[in-house]
Every structure is written in C-alpha cells, then in structure tokens.
Amino acid sequence: MADIHSYEGTAQSRGGEAGFGDYVALLKPRVMSLVVFTAFVGLYVAPVPVNPFIGFCCILFIALGGGASGALNMWYDADIDRVMTRTAKRPIPAGRLTEGDALGLGLFLSGLAVLMLGLAANWFAAAFLAFTIFFYAVVYTMWLKRSTPQNIVIGGAAGAFPPMIGWACATGGISVESLLMFSLTFFWTPPHFWALALFMKEDYHKAGVPMLTVTHGRPATRKHIFAYTLVLAPFAVALGLTSIGGPLYLAVALVFNALFILGGWRILRRTEEQAQKDSYAVEKSFFRLSLYYLAAHFAALAMQVTIGGWQ
Question: Three-class SS of residue 49?
Fold first, then answer.
C-alpha cells in the first residue's frame, strides 16, 4: 500500500494547477451540507433563543469543522481514493493537490473552527466539535474504516453529532431531545451507506476496505439493512413525543419510517440474480429514499417548532 503520509510537493507531480474549487472539494461540500442542515435544526429547535448573528456564526464554524474533517479524511485516504472509481477524480488522486495540502488545510480549519465556536457560543460546544473532528479523522478514518465491517456503524457517530453540537451552542449541554436527534442520524447511517455499498461493492473490494458487502457478502448486508430500519423507527417516532415534537413531525415520521421499512423489506427479499438483472434498481431507489428520509425528518422538526408542538 502506498505511503499516504508522504508529501508529493512538486508542481511537476501534479496533474494540473489547483483551483479554488479543488480546495472546496477537499471539504466534502455534500457531506458538509448535511452537517450544516442538521446542526442548524439542532440550534433552531433548542429551547434557548440565540441571537441570529451568533447563530449564523455558530453554524459557520460547525461547517468549517465538518470541512476540516473532510480534508483530514482525504489526506489519510488518498491511497484508497486513487483505486476507487467513485473517488478517483478527487483533487488528490487527480494530482491537482497533494496530501500535504489537505493535511495543512484540515489542521488549520480544525483549530480555527473550535476556537471561534468557543468564543461565539460556549466552550462545551467547542469541545464537542473538537471531539467530533477527532472521532471522524482518527477513530473512523484511521482506525475503523480499514479494520472492521462495523466501520460505518460506529463511525456513523461522527455524522450524528452535529445536531447535538447545534443544540449545545444554544443550551450549553445535552438533553433527551438532542440524544434522540443523534440516534435518528446514527441509526440511519448504516442502511444508507450499505445500500450504496450493494451496488458499489467492487470499489470497496479493490480498495481493501472491509465494508460489510466485502466481508460478509450481499445477502448478509441485505439482512442488516432491514434490521436497522426496524431499529431506527422507534427512535425517529419517539422524537415526535418530546418537547420539540408534535403532530406534523409525528405524521412525517410515521410515513417515512413505513416507507423505509418497506424499502428494507424489498431489499431483504431480493436475490443477486434479480438485482443484477435490473442493475440494482431497488437498491438505488432505497438509497435515494434514505436521502429524503433524513432531510424530511429534520425539516419537519424545524417546521413543527415554528408552528408549535404539543405544548
């Protein structure tokens, strides 16, 4: 395996001049958008009002922290990104940036985001952000991702922390509501990524990443997807019974969890022959549904708090 820590720092080694968009790509903007949205909802639905400008700054610094995590991930994963079709066009594998560029940007943004969030909100939220960056960059990227098929399960905590950080920015602490927002994202993550892995297995196999589809096969992955849809549903519905829930959120949760469980059941009953015959259409449809699933739940929370809930 290539030494991913070396700095290939000559212009001649690059595939072309880096542009501003390449540095933005290091921050994984699609992942950052999820961080921003869920953190915003966590901040917005918290019972302690926050000055709009302070709130904007909090979300900005949380986003920078999420981007820093992405840059550190791309630094460490440059070797496997080069062999995966899905990631081969990223700035480092394409030769437009080096591992050193990503490491430097990631470390700088990490320090900046944590310091500024502490000054803008409180040091508990800042410490929480620092732990999240550490968890994603070290616990998930450097350890879990390459060592266990449970990488997505445990590592998914990093992506589930942002709404708790948003809540902490407003309240300075943790509550049942923020823990349930965490649980919603945490238990959603495995079926979301495993559905993708079902039709992207060869990428993970080539890169030597022990995704569940590689280590246990697609039939076992299908069972795990369905099981997690069943585990996820109670947490999603329970959130609707808290102080930030209400009839609108509860209706959205019931509908989307019924669809999610049905989608998981359809995946469970599929054979590989059926999946290959229609180019994994059901699996791709479930993956798209998973994107709408999380967005719908958090949007419904924000709308519910806006119009008023059970209280």
Answer: coil
Q: Which of 28, 101, 10 is nearest to 64 (CA)?
A: 28
Transcribe 108-176 into DSSP letters. HHHHHHHHHHHHHT-HHHHHHHHHHHHIIIIIIIIIIHHH-TTHHHHHTHHHHSHHHHHHHHHHSS--H
| Topology (CATH) of 19-174 | Tetracycline Repressor; domain 2 (1.10.357)
With both helix axes pointing from N to C terminus, report the angle between 281-307 and 218-239 in degrees, rounded to the nearest 10: 10
pLDDT in tens, the chain (311 residues): 333 333 333 333 445 677 888 899 999 888 888 899 999 999 999 999 999 999 999 999 999 999 999 999 999 999 998 988 888 889 999 899 999 999 999 999 999 999 999 999 999 999 999 999 999 999 999 999 999 988 888 888 999 999 999 999 999 999 999 999 999 999 999 999 999 989 877 778 887 888 898 899 999 999 999 999 999 999 999 999 999 999 999 999 999 999 999 999 999 999 988 988 888 999 999 999 999 999 999 999 999 999 998 76
